[in-house]
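Lab notebook page, bench 4
Experiment: in silico fold of construct C2
Operator: M.H.
Input chain length: 186 residues
Purpose: comparison with the prior construct
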Amino acid sequence: MNTTTAHRLGTPDVMRRYPVIVGEATIIGYVSRWHRTWDAETSNGIHRVGRPPKGQAGDAWAARWVVEEYAAGRIVPIAARSAELDAVYGPAPLLDPRLPDTPTNRQRAMEVWALLAKFAWTPRGGYPGSDNLMLLRCDLCGAVVARFWSKLRGRNGNPPSPGARHKGCLDAAEVRRRVPAYGPAN
């Protein structure tokens, strides 16, 4: 990928989507990682850019693809986005649109949704798989955060840590008091 258009990556949002910015503040797309590959969201929708060559940072590599599309006139600037505003209001879909709708994925998503409810979380978007961020609302304090399911679930049959919900949440003792599924303090 070779490009001469000056660009920079902005600060990622809660879902770790990096805005690709040209000029002073013109957003021409967003890049984000999905199952070890990089996606670019532009005025033409979401495009799977792929994995960067060894030794190259994926965010910069995917951003260069967006800049090339812009320089070639195939995309136009887009509006700034907010993950919280993008989230579905009302019941979230079962699966993220990028996750294949298979019986296995649907079954796993239903299991995850049940455990999220048990531990006081409300999904704000579809289940993306365990190694991708999902947008959640903390039912204890109302914060909207992005978390990996793999970091929320407990290990070896134990519940997840009540003290590691998210930054700014209630302390572990109060979490245990409000959510019986965490069990008594040891």
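Observations: The radius of gyration is 19 Å. The CA atoms of residues 23 and 177 lie 51 Å apart.
Next step: discuss at group meeting.
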